[in-house]
Amino acid sequence: MRIFASRFALLSLALSTLALAPVAGAQDSAPGAADSSSAGPQHFAPDPQKQAARLTKRLGLNADQSAKIVAILQNHQQQAAAARGDTSLSQQDRRARLHAIQQEAASQINAVLTPEQQTQYAAMKQNMKDRWQHGHDGSSPPSGNPDDASNNGGN
Fold first, then answer.
1. I need a surface site. Which of 2, 6, 11, 82 has the fewest CB within 10 A?
2. Which letter, b or e, does each residue of 86-101 get, where b requires 16 or more Cβ atoms within 10 Å of its Cβ?
3. pTM of the model
4. Dihedral of CA 103/133/145/50: which sign?
5. Distances from the Cα of 140 to the Cαs of 8, 34, 130, 131, 132, in angstroms?
6. Are 21 and 73 in contact (CB under 8 A)?
7. 87: which DSSP letter?
8. 3-class SS at 151?
9. How many helices and strands in the chain, by DSSP H and E?
């Protein structure tokens, strides 16, 4: 059950990796904060600027949208790193906190997007979720380039 719970937490973070920056080790975090995740799976935290650039390309963001999303992703990364380093939280509470942080970032990003971009963004997240689930249930992941997530018509 713990493996499933860990994978669920990783899924949440993986979804945010594509668009929200799943978050490990913010620059402002204490040195011990990154060490707290070393017992579990490593969390990959792409640069918020690179993530915003990827979203800009996939969703056709304008400069103002891109700048706002960079700020959202940076904040998300810092909050998640702080939650991971918070030793006062139980594993369950930490997962819940990380999920809430990810949901808040997704909501903030959606507020910046146009309705058409929101549809594309939702399709990208769903594609990432599907790919993650197929890759972790023993079957092979769906074929296709993950960069094509926004070009698949929402499927």
1. 2
2. eeeeeeeebbebbbeb
3. 0.60
4. positive
5. 18, 31, 11, 9, 10
6. yes
7. T
8. helix
9. 6, 0
Q: Which residue has the tokens 């904040």?
A: 75
Residue written as tokens 């399709």? 123
For residue 74, which amino acid is it? Q
- Tally of domains in the chain: 1
**pLDDT of the chain, 155 residues: tens digit per residue:** 555 444 544 444 444 544 444 333 333 433 343 444 444 455 566 788 898 999 999 999 999 999 999 999 999 999 999 999 999 999 999 999 999 999 999 999 999 999 999 999 999 989 988 988 887 665 554 444 444 443 444 44
Alpha-carbon span 64 to 62, nearest angstrom = 6
